[in-house]
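Protein Entry — a single chain follows
Next Lines — sequence and tokenised fold
***
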Amino acid sequence: MARKIFLGARIFDGERFHDDKALITAGGRVEAIVARNDLPDGEVVTLAGGVLSAGFIDAQVNGGGGRMLNDEPSAASMDIIAGGHRPYGTTSLLPTLITDTSEASIAAIEAAKEAVKASRGVAGLHLEGPHLAPARKGAHLAELMRPVEERDVKTFIRAREEIGTLLVTMAAEQVTVAQVRELAEAGVTVSIGHSDCSSEAAEERFDAGARGVTHLFNAMSQLGHRTPGLVGAAIDHPSTWCGIIADGHHVDPKALRTALRAKRGEGKLFFVTDAMSLVGSEKDSFTLNGRTVRRERGGFCSKLVLSDGTLAGSDVDMISTIRYGVTYLDLTLAEALRMATLYPARFLRLADRGHLSPGMRADLVHLTDALAVTATWLGGEAA
């Protein structure tokens, strides 16, 4: 791959902005950020102002481009989903299988092995279930939920070894401390979610190696002044990461602003979309485990609901969450960008992305000053 020289935009490297500089890429990797009067030879890509950043990373994507992973857990589906989110700046994502059968989980694992190797935006796999708590089922099917068994632990460890990045969401009620420790020591990223657990039960699992909490505030025991619940444990535990859905429907902005101010541990909240198939699609409904989910327009973005009004994932894309963060959550643009790039990369331990330093993947997104995506690049090539 020829050397490219990106000029004309402010460069956000994951930590700070660089003005009047150029980003140099070669061989699909970042080579350097240099002064405009110190340019090497190469193909010049001239950008019309705005911001050039590392591409966005989304740890929770159920669907996109008209396709749900659960409908067809294949590498082809994962490629369609990644392609559906790319126009919104996402260059790395974890296709997410929500609670389903063991056969569907195995199919998703096999598909992820192939999709990750293709290097077209699929960075791993997220299994959100079936080890969740029926009391906090959300839009998941409670009848498929069950405790973690030893065979599951072995399956997850083997999948992590073969895929590279595996995120599993589990309720504290469904996984033991010893199982969390075994999974974490094998490199599986364990996240506690869809759980009605006590703060003490959550903390035991965090201390054993559970790394995060899935969509903070949603489908979990809430913060009470005597019973802090999973929300309180997540905010108070300094090493715990929390994904947040910033779409104006899942969590009131006052609650998100409070969490951002209160979270112990710097830079531990990051954006996820929890997106369903309608992102990147003109359809207004789809089926989820045989149930119709419809799009209701209005608000910051439209929302997705089952017939009983239960939220069923989101209809938000990653650049919209950044706009929401800047507009409603009192975030600086730099911090909002970190929550879509640097922080999820650190949470998922994706060491080669999320930051524009030498040697990192040249996965890029260009934004206008109004925070609209104009172009993306995967490995330095226009995508």
User: Anything to note?
Assistant: The CA atoms of residues 47 and 327 lie 25 Å apart. The chain has ten helices and 24 strands. Residues 56-348 form a domain with the TIM Barrel fold (CATH 3.20.20.140). The first strand starts at residue 4 and ends at 7.
